[in-house]
Amino acid sequence: MERKITGVAVVLGMTAIILGAFGAHALKKQLTVEELITFETGVKYQLYHALFLLFLGVTTLVTEKSKKTIFQLVVLGVIFFSGSIYVLATKTISGIDFKPLGILTPIGGALLILGWTILLWSILKDKR
Description:
Elements: H1 2-25, H2 33-58, H3 64-89, H4 91-94, H5 104-125
Helix pairs in contact: 1-2, 2-3, 3-5
Subcellular location: Membrane
Membrane topology: Multi-pass membrane protein
Family: Belongs to the UPF0382 family.
């Protein structure tokens, strides 16, 4: 499980850096300042959670079962939260109104919060 978590963490981190550079350079002239800030929010949260998964992959403070649950929540949370932000922030370029996908952003955020909550609970209940 650790190898899988760490591998996904690296992919999320790498793609966050790529998307951040893409936003800073290629999208800078295409998006409004507000849209660019929104896009950057998605990048930041993706990168934060890549680091979170790196920690999760190496920590011995939580059980394998908890690691699996946290991993699934965080990956789905990043896809929903950051993914929906990327799509919504670039709607002027795509010309497609993705407003119905806006509900995915708070759902993704809730999944991320739940992942952190389970980590906290797992650490607190560890009797070692």
